[in-house]
Amino acid sequence: MATRSYSELVKRVEELVSIEHYVSLGVLKGGLLLAAAFREGALNLYALDPSTGSMKRLNRDPVTLTARHEYGSDRVVFARDVARGAEMHALYSVSLDSPGEEERLAPSMKPARVLGIVYSGGEVLFTASTREENGLYAVEGDSARLVARFKGVPLLTSYGRGLAAGVTMKPEWGGRFGLFVADAGSGEVKEHLPEGGSACCPVVAGDGTVIYAFIGPRRAELRRLDPSGMKDEKLRLEGRDLDSFEPTDITFIDVAPDGSIIVIARKAGRSRLFIDGRLVRAPEGSLYYAQLRGGRIYVTHSSLRKPPRILEIGGDGGVRVVAEGRLPGWLGEALREVSFVEVESFDGSRVPTYVLKSGEAGEPGPTVVLVHGGPFAEYGDDWNLLAASLASAGFHVVMPNYRGSVGYGEEWKLKIIGDPCGGELEDIVASARWARSSGLASRVYIAGYSYGGYMTMCALTRKPREFEGGVAGASVVDWVEMYELSDAAFKQFIEFLFGGKRDAELWRERSPISHVDSLEKPLCIVHPQNDSRTPLKPVLRFMEKALERGKAFEAHIAPDMGHVVNTVEDAMKIVVPAVVFLARLEKRVGGSAQSD
Fold first, then answer.
1. Quick one: DSSP state of residue 567?
2. CATH code of 445's domain
3. From the DSSP assignment, how many helices (H) and strands (E) are in the chain?
4. Which residues are catalytic?
5. pLDDT by residue (tens digit) across 240-286?
6. Which strands form 75-81's sheet, in the order they lie side by side?
7. Is the dihedral of CA 284, 304, 450, 62 positive or negative?
């Protein structure tokens, strides 16, 4: 491991955090692209001219969530957290002709956790959660009309022909995601749970049908649903490349103005882009959001070695960079190599795992098992700030897609339902053991944020001798108290994760606070002060119990910040304590090991 001062490590993190990220979200009036960018210190929205690369900032203050816009929109709609990170949102819009002059939408509605927004045909619809309920709303004048209430958690993704479509999770669905279609006028809601799988990414097509992704046990495919009878069938496209690819996941669907169907599909943590079923060549890595404009395709690309950037793909297949951030000169050497492996777990399952090797460390060298949040998320070949920061500090990074991860079919995702801190913890331990046995790791640490922070807590209290120490960011420590403190969306999420059961005894048994006595290795706790997803109060009680028992830990409470990283300052509050703690721990533990 390269010997660097802590000030040098912090400087590297600052350089990484300051890299500008660009994501293309839609096509606006005049053919401008709607670009979201971590630029000017926060998440902001820009009207981007792809022919010249010039950008005009639209919003006045930082943005939290952006609406899905129809092609040719002359206004941009977004949500902003107005509760210092607690994810209570208000809606705003801004005209392309008057950048910076924001209009508050539905000002009479109290701020709520906004889950999804669509702006189409001059109408704004959104789904949101309050303490009492989850609902679909339509902006009307100064207020928001409640269109429909949901028992599940509704994530709105599309609106057209008077129909709102999205996905919802309900505790009684056994871990699967269903589809909803709501009539914005009458409020009638119809739901569809595909047999043997889940629904994703629904889009209302021009003929009033809904195109969505069916995520089956091991494969994903496109389907078309007729809302009148809620019957679906496989969607046959002209091109056969999508079927030949045999994706395990589909992450994006859109219907262009000319009727072309745009799809981003994934397999083994990497994406491919398809238009009407035909493959469009793009750089290897991950792709997000794609738009057709003037015979050209605009798509966002990233990899574990390259932050998000906007690419233009011409009709001849040529690729041009439209917008990207400037990278530090040392980055390519620090992020030396990316590989994909399958790690055998306790029950013979193969855990899909990405490995980022550091050019600052030898082999074997210090290694961090980095655990993703969610748990319904995925580590693929896409940019990760904490992974890049750790590799730049001289740690190899192992990123397991433990059971419960998406991207590898429903069969793998559903293995976590009813069993948090169970089989997925064994998968994470297996990845640590693989790191040692493969010759990659000299010593192994663990780190994670959100559900990844929870798994770090689980690992250090239930498998205390597998890791030398760890960093738990924004973690769950007590499911019972978290449930009491949660709003309607997160109450249902907890029930969904535990298989529809409200079993307080199981929740306590799977809570790290119940196992503080078993904590042996150094722990760093990093937690946002105003986090409303994983509240701070239970973490403070965990710290109190650990203190009473003389356990080794340090804590960093990030002031004026919530669960979501919205600014460069937020990122520094989370990443710097994690990297410095692990570097300091490795210096102490590694030096001790060498002296032995």
1. B
2. 3.40.50.1820
3. 12, 37
4. 450, 531, 563
5. 999 999 999 999 999 999 999 999 999 999 999 999 999 999 999 99
6. 65-66, 75-81, 89-95, 103-105
7. negative
Beta bridge partners of 278: 275
Q: Find out whether 308 and 270 touch, Cβ atoms under 8 Å.
A: no
Residue 230 within a domain: no
Q: What CA–CA distances, in Å, run from 244 to 36, 197, 272, 278, 412?
A: 33, 20, 12, 10, 22
Tell me what pLDDT residue 595 has.
Answer: 42
Per-residue model confidence (pLDDT) at position 593: 57
pLDDT at 324: 97
What pLDDT score does 589 carry?
Answer: 83
Give the other-Cβ count within 10 Å of 229's Cβ: 8
Q: CA 460 to CA 14: how far, in whole Å?
A: 29
306-313 and 296-303 beta bridge pairing: antiparallel
Round to whole Å and give the CA distance between 538 and 546. 12
| pTM of the complete model beyond 0.90 | yes
In the chain, what percentage of residues exceed pLDDT 90?
96
- pLDDT computed for residue 1 by the predictor: 59
Phi, psi of 460 (to 5 degrees): -80, -15
469 within 8 A of 445, measured Cβ to Cβ: yes
**What whole-number distance in Å separates Cα of residue 173 and Cα of residue 160?**
27
DSSP strand pairing (134-140 vs 143-150): antiparallel
Helix axes 568-595, 6-17, angle to 10 degrees: 140
Helix, strand or coil, per DSSP, at residue 201: strand
Strand partners, 167: 155, 179
Tens digits of residue pLDDT in 54-80: 999 999 999 999 999 999 999 999 999
Task: Work out whether strand 220-226 and strand 231-234 pair parallel, antiparallel, or are unpaired.
Answer: antiparallel
In the three-class reduction of DSSP (H, G, I as helix; E, B as strand; rest coil), residue 423 is classed as helix
Contacts of residue 488, defined as CB under 8 A and 6 or more positions apart, other chains included, come to 129, 130, 131, 132, 133, 134
Residues forming a β-bridge with 114? 128
Whether the predicted pLDDT of 556 surpasses 80: yes
In this structure, the chain runs to a length of 596
Tokens 């606006």, residue located: 28
pLDDT over 70 for what percent of the chain? 99
In a domain, 384, yes or no: yes
Closest CA to 419 of 506, 352, 486: 506
Residue 220, token pair as written in the block: 């994903």
Range of the domain at 429: 331-595
Residue 580's H or E segment, with its range, is: helix 568-595
Residue range 506-523: mean pLDDT, rounded = 97
Partnered with residue 124 across adjacent β-strands are 119
Q: Which tokens belong to 572?
A: 């520094």
Domains contained in the chain, number: 1
The answer to whether 531 and 497 are in contact (CB under 8 A) is no
271 occurs within a structural domain: no
**539 assigned to some structural domain:** yes
Residue with token string 């919205």: 566
Tell me the per-residue pLDDT of 196-225, one tens digit each, with 9 for 90 and over: 999 999 999 999 999 999 999 999 999 999
